[in-house]
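Reviewers of the previous submission asked for a worked example of the structure-prediction workflow described in the proposal, so we include one complete record here. The input consisted solely of the amino acid sequence. No template or homolog information was supplied to the procedure at any stage.
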Amino acid sequence: MKELDLLLLEYLREGWQLAPESEREVFAKILELPDPVLAAYLLGNAECTEDSLAPLLAVLRTMAARGRPAGAGRDTAGPRS
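From that input alone, the workflow returned the following structure tokens.
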């Protein structure tokens, strides 16, 4: 999924260099998840039961939310005449 690729690339740009080895290992595990599962975790449609992945998934969810335009999913055009 292109959206997942973009989000993961954003993490690589923003967090990878400063991440400790343990976080890099978790990121590698996250990359092994099937796209539909990862998308469900990041969109909040499913909760990850693997405790070691949860903190980094939370970071990725925050990054995903930050990347959405304000008012995404809502009509922000204002009143119509």
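Residues 2-14 form the longest helix (13 residues). We consider this example representative of the routine output the project will generate in years two and three.
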